[in-house]
Amino acid sequence: QIVCSRYYAQIFKTLHITESYKQTGGEPMVLRRAKALAHILENMTLYIRPSELIIGNFASNPDACSHYPEFQYRWVEKEVESGMVYSDLLSDEEKMELKEIDSYWVKYAIHHLIGKYLPKNLRDVTSVFGFETVTPNYEKILRVGLKGFIEETLRRKERLEKELIERTICEADYVKKKDFLDSVVIALEAAISWGKRYASLAREMTESEKDPVRKHELEVIAENCEWVPENPARTLHEAIQCYWFIHLIVNYIELPQVGDGIRFDVCMNPFYEKDLKEGRITRESAQELVECVFVKSQETGFLHPPIWSGEAAGGLGYQTLNIGGVDANGDDVSSEMSLIVLDAMKNVRTVTPPLALRWHDKIPKKLIDKTIEVLATGMPQPAIFNDKVNIPRLVSLGIPVEEARKYSILSCMLPTIQGKNLTKRTAGLIPVPLCLTAALGLGVLPGWWRRPVGNPVPEPEKINSVEELMDATMENCKWIIDAYTTISSIGDALYQEYVPRPFLSALLDDSIERAQDFRQWEHWQGYRELYPIGLNNVADSLAAIKKVIFEEKKASMADLIQALKNNWEGYEDLQQMCLEAPKFGNDDDYVDLISRELARRITEEVIKHKTILGSPYTLDGTAASAFSLNGAVCPATPDGRKAREPFHDGSISPMGGRDHRGPTAVLKSVSKVDPLVTWNHLFNQTFMPQYLVG
């Protein structure tokens, strides 16, 4: 990995993975990946910041972030050049060193290999690298330690050899499975050694520490890191430290992930209660440890391509912590730790980690009150997720209800289950308004799309019904869906071949038993997903055309198309009529049912496509900031929106300023677009704090 700093750019870390790859040429890729991780963990810079109680870093200093040349390198070289976005990150000498190192990755970087495999018609389609996410079995990690996973792996190796001797497995499968299990042991032992390196550093620091309070803290840190992540956690401090180590390796060091998904209160409350009972901790000191996690999460981040930053502003990784919910029997699992997490957020008010609160019929009133108390501070935390939607949605994907009840949110919107191989990988965006404007012959404004989206209707001014225009819009949606699912599936095949993940795989249930990397199988249907954005801009647009053009006949389609080409200049009266047409978010079936129909049709089209593992592609409501980026290249739309203005936020929110009948009317509009028929919609609704106080 390359480490880039605002102040001191350090390239040496990229040498670690490059050195390892050069030393392991010709070996099976899964072993090369494990040895590369071990080489990084053995040689990377470690530091402990003043006063911190939870330690661990993934880069050489708090101002640094990692780049992953095994994925891509060319855009980094481009963007650090003079006058480009990241030009200040590296000195001229370091830029030359970077290029020299990158020369090795010409044959290996996946996102440059993809170009060799794409058919000609897809080579100029703008696609953006989307990170993957899957959540380890943190409860098991805290219960058995990485030593327990190693012992399980060694037992599996013994049985594998017996299977070969007894001829119940073919030699080819035996070789692959043995390589995988060997790689797991290498990766897990490396993580254990990494923790012990921190223990050694803490002990060294105690020798020169003059403050007795800090000296004692460093002694405790050393003891913790000597014990975890190797062994089962015994205290809350050890449990949180173990979690943070695993989080850094899984999400930032082995490979980049966007998300987390830990059920934090479920995992940590047993340790808190035990410590409290045995007099080792107070509620205040427990909250301080949680706050330390929040502070540490501010140190993480990615070096994003500038385009990607436009789709998901900020680089902190959506490290979602979950609280509340139910167990396998449907009983509430919230605890004092749930309240501690909320109090910690109220106190430190950090941007990350996002908090996800599960809402269900048995949720305790004290948790509701605490949630509102935090929201009343003006913090947009926690996000609230409805068990009555998410559990049935997971069951519909073939997940047993007992498992579905244990779901968590792993990034912005997506439900997963700790320890299960339900991998989230982004395929791309469906900017629905661009599909509409393409149909009308308006194209795409200059920006980040390399080629126009889809195809125009031959004579759009002759369109004579909303249904005809919706069909044309859907044809362009299909064009995007076809392109992105093809590109993504080719990428997935290359991921399987070139970037197996033995460390993460080992921490997922059944990977060791199967002796198989997590990229090659899935517990149930995973998530290879597309993000629809601007759905309600199109619903509002179709409603405006239906009312103004076809029903009231106040203008013609030709007039409207010319108005859109002129960005409404000279057509202000027509724009006002379109703005006054029914708008989503006001509990009006005239437009709400258009949104529902369009969402249903997009969903039906997406699920026709299959991943390389045979599962349907899915849709996800994680719109992030893509509504702004894509709006910036979209011409004016018939809902009254002007060119380059953002779309509505979320995946189902009304367009800003167009809901006039209050929050309940908005909720009624939203409820008509069934998430069990379409996708897990992101709806943003904010109340001014004074309306929540008390």
Textual characterization of the structure:
It is a single chain. This protein has 694 residues and is of the alpha/beta class. Helix content is 49%, strand content 7%. The chain has 26 helices and twelve strands. It has helices at 12-23, 29-43, 74-79, 92-102, 110-117, 138-165, 171-208, 212-227, 236-253, 264-277, 283-297, 306-311, 336-348, 365-375, 387-396, 401-404, 432-439, 466-498, 502-506, 511-514, 535-551, 557-565, 572-580, 589-606, 626-631, 663-671, and strands at 2-5, 64-67, 132-133, 262-263, 321-324, 355-359, 383-386, 407-409, 415-417, 424-431, 527-533, 618-619. The strands form four sheets. Strands 3-10-11-12 form a four-stranded mixed sheet. Helix 2 runs parallel beside helix 7 (171-208), helix 7 (171-208) packs antiparallel against helix 8 and helix 18 (466-498) packs parallel to helix 24. The longest helix is centred in the first third of the chain and has 38 residues, at 171-208. The model is unreliable at 1-10 (pLDDT under 50).
